[in-house]
Specification:
The protein is mainly alpha-helical. The protein has two domains: about 5-15 and about 130-205, Helix-hairpin-Helix base-excision DNA repair enzymes (C-terminal) (Endonuclease Iii, domain 2), CATH 1.10.1670; about 25-125, Endonuclease III, domain 1 (Orthogonal Bundle). The chain contains twelve helices and no strands. It is elongated and about 60 Å long. The relative contact order is 0.14.
């Protein structure tokens, strides 16, 4: 196992994060709701939304305004409501209510980028997929696992150095690691269990 793989394996073990659902539709909608907001806000919005609308067919019949109060806590709720209803309608009309299990098809849905699509593929279908958000992109470069400028480049580079069994779990674990230790500003380097292997920390110490 190469060094980047060992580092990611440590992060996954030290900062475990379970799946919040195995239903591809709920994962898709909740991931859309999670954009630019905190986990607790996403959880509350998802709980309220799915208490009212149980599946894709019910959501496809809703109007965006019906969702406003249910998902307000997630932030940008008007835009997200519009996307969610639009996605639900497309899924019913084009996919008979099923969630596509191919990256290319998921990326055709409004509001769905590579991060969201890869989360759905891993959590909903058990496929090996690396979801790169701001945490994964920042931490991977800070540790020295990759040297990239954009999240899509980070995803491609990580696929070359990380074994497939770590692809899915690394997103959630890196999010936890990023929130608790490897923060964007003033990372807690002295308390970090990976500082002896971190390029950023070692350069700072020189």
């Amino acid at each position: 196992m190469n060094e980047p793989a060992k580092i990611v394996e440590k992060i996954v073990k030290l900062f475990p994060r379970g799946r919040f659902s195995s239903d591809p539709f709920r994962i898709l909608i909740c991931t859309i709701l999670s954009q630019r907001t905190r986990d607790e806000n996403t959880e509350r919005a998802c709980e309220k939304l799915f208490a009212r609308y149980r599946d894709v067919f019910e959501l496809a019949k809703a109007s965006a305004t019906d969702l406003y109060e249910l998902i307000r806590e997630s932030g940008m709720y008007k835009q997200k409501a519009q996307r969610i209803v639009e996605v639900a309608k497309i899924l019913v009309e084009k996919y008979s209510g099923k969630i596509p299990n191919k990256l290319e098809e998921l990326l055709k849905l409004p509001g769905v980028g590579r991060k969201t699509a890869n989360i759905v593929l891993y959590q909903g279908f058990g496929q090996p997929a690396i979801a790169v958000d701001t945490h994964v992109h920042r931490i991977s470069n800070r540790l020295g696992l990759v040297k990239t400028k954009r999240p899509d480049e980070t995803e491609e580079q990580l696929k070359k150095v990380i074994p497939k069994h770590l692809w899915g779990p690394m997103n959630g674990s890196m999010v936890e690691f990023g929130r608790r230790i490897c923060q964007p500003i003033k990372p807690k380097c002295e308390a970090c269990p990976l500082n002896s292997e971190c390029e950023y920390f070692l350069q700072k110490e020189c």
